[in-house]
């Protein structure tokens, strides 16, 4: 049985910050962001948008009424959870009015969580071929004003419908994982922002990639030259490029070819920033919608990495007719976002919801987005679907 991605959608907040403006405000050479990180813009999420609203919007864009009736599992991968107990997928399930007899869960392991969700979805479909599973990667990357990670921030969500006989990509059964108990990136419960050992984390990203790929080659017999493209976790675009370079130290022809595809695979990432669990799948979407070279039958290699650390390498094969299930105007839509000054960005992105002693929101801003957080009453988050 062939199992994989039948539909894929994306959502981002309607606000954007140009990193050249941020560089000027921080007295930094703009090329440090544009060339050093390969990042150009950052999606900025208001306080009324979170992983629930972004995830619901990404899913709503791709689901038919038939899909909603047949989905019997909803999985959200995130590291931006809005509740220590209730899964974001339960909120999303309600907002989308999905089949009530469904399982809804949330998975956490830094930026790797949605990949784990994808694997779980495949196992479920293998046992229940007529089922459909909605896998959502939704995150808001936030590090603080003038922090080292500030230019890599971002916000957004990817939604994938996983089915038998998929219309976009068949996922191969060749997954290889690795776990390391390290502290390269972590977020204590009582901290507002994550803590990062930046140099150590980038070193671990690369070492996990190369050692896991060595094991992948041993188990599968596949080589890098067998793949039309590589999609990697993109904390910032330059890190992904360094990853490809680390894999192709001796094969210059393969390096050049995969580097060209990589540039197509980061078109959206450069304009959105880091969306944690979704960044690898945003890269896939960018590749599919911007490459004029890849075609049906091509194999694509994936490297998912979540600090702490868990990583996984796997592959997928493009299905004939996959291009018919993609958007052709996504870049134009990204250009229509509302640009922010640095001052407005600092106000919107870092605003915090104020509540009274009874847990009721005070002066929560209005939001006319498709899905929005409209209130908090007695510590309960209340969402609206327009």
From TrEMBL:
<dbReference type="Pfam" id="PF08540">
    <property type="entry name" value="HMG_CoA_synt_C"/>
</dbReference>
<dbReference type="GO" id="GO:0006084">
    <property type="term" value="P:acetyl-CoA metabolic process"/>
</dbReference>
<dbReference type="InterPro" id="IPR013528">
    <property type="entry name" value="HMG_CoA_synth_N"/>
</dbReference>
<feature type="binding site">
    <location>
        <position position="242"/>
    </location>
    <ligand>
        <name>(3S)-3-hydroxy-3-methylglutaryl-CoA</name>
    </ligand>
</feature>
<protein>
    <submittedName>
        <fullName>3-hydroxy-3-methylglutaryl CoA synthase</fullName>
    </submittedName>
</protein>
<feature type="active site" description="Proton donor/acceptor">
    <location>
        <position position="233"/>
    </location>
</feature>
<comment type="similarity">
    <text>Belongs to the thiolase-like superfamily. HMG-CoA synthase family.</text>
</comment>
<feature type="binding site">
    <location>
        <position position="29"/>
    </location>
    <ligand>
        <name>(3S)-3-hydroxy-3-methylglutaryl-CoA</name>
    </ligand>
</feature>
<feature type="domain" description="Hydroxymethylglutaryl-coenzyme A synthase C-terminal">
    <location>
        <begin position="258"/>
        <end position="349"/>
    </location>
</feature>
<dbReference type="Pfam" id="PF01154">
    <property type="entry name" value="HMG_CoA_synt_N"/>
</dbReference>
<dbReference type="InterPro" id="IPR011554">
    <property type="entry name" value="HMG_CoA_synthase_prok"/>
</dbReference>
<dbReference type="GO" id="GO:0004421">
    <property type="term" value="F:hydroxymethylglutaryl-CoA synthase activity"/>
</dbReference>
<feature type="active site" description="Proton donor/acceptor">
    <location>
        <position position="79"/>
    </location>
</feature>
<feature type="domain" description="Hydroxymethylglutaryl-coenzyme A synthase C-terminal">
    <location>
        <begin position="179"/>
        <end position="252"/>
    </location>
</feature>
<feature type="domain" description="Hydroxymethylglutaryl-coenzyme A synthase N-terminal">
    <location>
        <begin position="2"/>
        <end position="165"/>
    </location>
</feature>
<dbReference type="InterPro" id="IPR013746">
    <property type="entry name" value="HMG_CoA_synt_C_dom"/>
</dbReference>
<keyword id="KW-0808">Transferase</keyword>
<feature type="binding site">
    <location>
        <position position="143"/>
    </location>
    <ligand>
        <name>(3S)-3-hydroxy-3-methylglutaryl-CoA</name>
    </ligand>
</feature>
<feature type="binding site">
    <location>
        <position position="274"/>
    </location>
    <ligand>
        <name>(3S)-3-hydroxy-3-methylglutaryl-CoA</name>
    </ligand>
</feature>
<feature type="active site" description="Acyl-thioester intermediate">
    <location>
        <position position="111"/>
    </location>
</feature>
<dbReference type="InterPro" id="IPR016039">
    <property type="entry name" value="Thiolase-like"/>
</dbReference>
